[in-house]
């Protein structure tokens, strides 16, 4: 399978690369968007019929717009080159569903603040008649990814992944989001941007987040980024030997 993996920062894409055991990395090439794309050739498993895979990595920057630009740069540079796009990196977790270190696999990718604030509360963009705020991964993909993580003992949850442009910093905001999205497990800033680019190019998308902090009152001291990056590496180690080498 040919997979495009979009992260926000290099530390996240480095964790993904470290997890894809046995890969052979090419020298980075620069996309027209200015982003560096690194290609990993992931060997198949001889004698099992598992084909080799290709994973391209791009660190596109923080936020949905930057992520959309980077994903579009890679997708437009190689039309029909990808079977799947993955938005991944660290993210906030909604307690109690996603404690620190949990890997959240999206069954929905939601732009949680795309809409209008009104006296009656938030109105999503589709209710305003201007488009969409939800993208869905292919049926069954999140469960297949979860199966690979479960097999490797990685703590994980299949749930909606929220995308915001402003990191939640209060309990009230966290409560507002979970009231609108009761099953949500993660909050990050790039997923929906990557999903929009993938949809525009007709390529399936999924989001995979490793929880670095609790969504709620701002407490930077409580963030556990290194642990989350390690969980991300572990998740992609498992995915690189199973899901990423299968056909969608
Ligand atoms: O609150 C701060 O002072 C602060 C300082 C530096 C960076 C941040 C970020 O929020 C980094 C956002 C970056 O990390 C992802 N991320 C991780 N946890 C969350 C979260 O709880 N909510 C949203 N995004 C999160 C995100 O995808 C970005 O790439 C804050």
Automatic annotation (TrEMBL):
Keywords: Glycosidase, Hydrolase, Menaquinone biosynthesis. Pfam families: PNP_UDP_1. InterPro entries: FL_hydrolase_MqnB, Nucleoside_phosphorylase_d, Nucleoside_phosphorylase_sf. Residues 57-227 form the Nucleoside phosphorylase domain. GO terms for biological process: L-methionine salvage from S-adenosylmethionine; menaquinone biosynthetic process; nucleoside metabolic process. GO terms for cellular component: cytosol. SUPFAM superfamilies: Purine and uridine phosphorylases. Signal peptide: none annotated. Transmembrane segments: none annotated. It is an enzyme of class 3 (hydrolase). One of its GO terms (molecular function) is adenosylhomocysteine nucleosidase activity. Gene3D superfamilies: Nucleoside phosphorylase domain. Pathway: Quinol/quinone metabolism; menaquinone biosynthesis. Its EC number is 3.2.2.26. It catalyses: futalosine + H2O = dehypoxanthine futalosine + hypoxanthine. Catalyzes the hydrolysis of futalosine (FL) to dehypoxanthine futalosine (DHFL) and hypoxanthine, a step in the biosynthesis of menaquinone (MK, vitamin K2). Belongs to the PNP/UDP phosphorylase family. Futalosine hydrolase subfamily. This is Futalosine hydrolase.
């Amino acid at each position: 399978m040919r997979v495009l993996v979009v992260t926000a920062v290099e530390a996240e894409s480095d964790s993904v690369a470290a997890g894809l055991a046995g890969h052979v990395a090419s020298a980075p090439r620069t996309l027209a968007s200015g982003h560096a794309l690194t290609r990993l050739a992931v060997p198949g498993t001889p004698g099992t019929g598992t084909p080799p895979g290709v994973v391209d990595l791009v660190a596109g920057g923080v936020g949905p717009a930057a992520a959309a630009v980077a994903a579009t740069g890679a997708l437009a540079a190689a039309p029909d080159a990808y079977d799947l796009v993955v938005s991944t990196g660290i993210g906030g977790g909604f307690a109690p569903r996603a404690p620190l270190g949990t890997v959240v696999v999206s069954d929905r990718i939601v732009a949680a603040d795309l809409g209008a604030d009104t006296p009656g509360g938030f109105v999503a963009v589709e209710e305003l008649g201007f488009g969409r705020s939800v993208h869905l991964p292919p049926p069954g993909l999140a469960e297949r990814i979860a199966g690979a993580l479960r097999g490797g003992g990685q703590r994980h949850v299949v749930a909606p992944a929220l995308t915001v442009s402003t990191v939640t910093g209060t309990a009230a905001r966290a409560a507002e989001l979970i009231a609108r999205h009761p099953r949500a497990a993660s909050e990050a800033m790039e997923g929906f941007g990557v999903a929009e680019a993938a949809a525009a190019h007709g390529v399936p998308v999924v989001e995979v987040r490793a929880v670095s902090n609790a969504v709620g009152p701002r407490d930077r001291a409580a963030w556990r980024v290194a642990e989350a990056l390690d969980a991300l590496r572990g998740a992609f180690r498992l995915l690189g030997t199973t899901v990423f080498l299968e056909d969608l």
